[in-house]
Design goal:
elongated; 5 helices; mainly alpha; 108 residues; Cathepsin B, Chain A
Length: 108
């Protein structure tokens, strides 16, 4: 895991209101890490990926396209995560210009 993200601590600050948020922030601090906020425009997952890999969230479209392509070539795996009111192909067509609504479980 890259610890270089800790070098930009002052980039964005936020007050933590809940006990859970404060505890998580403290745990991250103890590991030499911190929570980094990205623009919340519906592309936050892609912005987060771009930020961690490139150090800049503005290149999120590149990762959105790569992920959409990957999902499209692995339909059998991902089709169960698409809501029932839309076909997989319609979803992929729409996903190039809209927010992806597949739920990803990630680990650090």
């Amino acid at each position: 895991m890259k610890k270089s993200i800790g070098k930009q601590r002052n980039r964005q600050c936020r007050r933590y209101g809940s006990v859970e948020e404060t505890n998580f922030k403290n745990m991250m601090t103890n590991l030499g890490l911190f929570i980094r906020h990205v623009q919340g425009d519906g592309n936050c997952m892609f912005r987060s990926i771009a930020d961690q890999l490139l150090g800049n969230e503005s290149k999120h479209e590149v990762y959105r396209q790569l992920i959409c392509n990957y999902i499209g070539t692995n339909e059998d795996h991902f089709k169960h995560f698409i809501e029932d009111d839309e076909s997989f192909s319609d979803y992929l067509s729409r996903s190039d210009s809209m927010v992806i609504s597949i739920y990803f479980i990630t680990s650090i």
